[in-house]
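Continuing the batch. This is chain 6 of the set; chains 1 through 5 are on the previous pages. Same settings as before, nothing changed between runs. Recording input and output for traceability.
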Amino acid sequence: MKKEEKKQIIESLAAQLEQTPNFYLTDISGLNADKTAKLRRACFEKQIKLVVVKNTLLRKALEKMALTDAELLFPVLEGPTAVMFTEAASAPAKLIQEFGKKNGKPVLKGALVQECAYVGENQLDALVSIKSREELIGDIIGLLQSPAQNVISALQSNAGGKIAGIVKTLSEKE
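Output for chain 6:
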């Protein structure tokens, strides 16, 4: 591979890292053509971009981007590596878990999700449980609405007459 080609690949990887900073490093070696095609199809359906890369070029792209905790992933950049780029933080982890149960691969090497590095296959369960931004916002809204809904339901129930009477009495005392 010529120097210009390597530079172009590094630039392409750096652009992809800038666009989608959540990525997973996996080992898909040993999958036959049929299983690899199924994996690629599953990635496409879940809006995950799967790219097989040379470790040295990925390392240079990571160094160029200077992402937080990216250096923690350098030790796992050995052997065949496929990168899964994603917007949804936990989607690749769920795909790796489901597809891996049936086929034995892919195996998680590491991930950089929400600016935190996860190294090793034992981190897969933690990555599966990560909530997306939208899910977290929904949880917060639900928590904020809960007390207001309790007050409204209390006012609308039979006890609401008593509460309204107490509020009226207190306002008249002033």
